[in-house]
Amino acid sequence: MNDEITPVASGFVARYGDHTLPAALGPDGDQVVLFSEEELDGFQPASGYWRRVVARAEVEWLVLVRTVAAFGGEPCVVLDEDEDGLHIAYTGHSGMKAEALGYWLVDHGAYEVVVPREEVFSIRVERIPVP
Q1: CA proximity to 7, closest of 71, 101, 87
Q2: pTM of the complete model
Q3: Of 46, 77, 87, 128, which sits 20 to 30 A from 117 (CA to CA)?
Q4: What sign for the dihedral angle of Cα 77, 79, 82, 85?
Q5: By C-alpha distance, which of 20, 21, 111, 46 is closest to 74?
Q6: Alpha-carbon distance 74 to 63, whole Å?
Q7: 51: closest CA among 82, 87, 14, 80?
Q8: What is the pLDDT of residue 10?
């Protein structure tokens, strides 16, 4: 395991002008909502942060960032980290394997568990381009 990689929350990130910002898919299919902790030109205040809705064509790139790993030889995504360890979600295809590894069913076909960090291997951050 590489202790230098800090698990990060999953989410969208966009490049807009000179800024790389947290983002979300907009209310319409061709829109992106950009977020900033500081006031930027054209951004509107919104409950402790600033936001701006732009056309998808206005961002240089848009990616989904997520931390993936392996637990018990099976793929997972890291949801969070705290003093109890890593909160992970199973991304394999066998509910029986997930349950055998100690995951609990949180929704139909969705399994999660909290395990010590040293039991999670091959931790890496993926950047998945959004077309």
Answers
A1: 87
A2: 0.76
A3: 128
A4: negative
A5: 111
A6: 24
A7: 14
A8: 82
- DSSP for the chain, please give it: --TTPPP---EEEEEETTEEEEEEE-SSTTEEEEEESS--TT-EEETTEEEEEEEGGGSSEEEEEEEEEEETTEEEEEEEEETTEEEEEE-SS-HHHHHHTT-EEEETTEEEEEE-GGGEEEEEEEEEE--
CA angle 40, 36, 42 (to 5 degrees): 30
Q: Which residue has the tokens 């568990």?
A: 113
User: pLDDT tens for residues 93-126?
Assistant: 999 999 999 999 999 999 999 999 999 999 999 9
| 10 closest CA partner among 24, 20, 28, 26 | 24
In total, the chain counts a number of residues equal to 131
Beta bridge partners of 21: 14
Reported as a pLDDT band with limits 50, 70 and 90, residue 27 is: confident
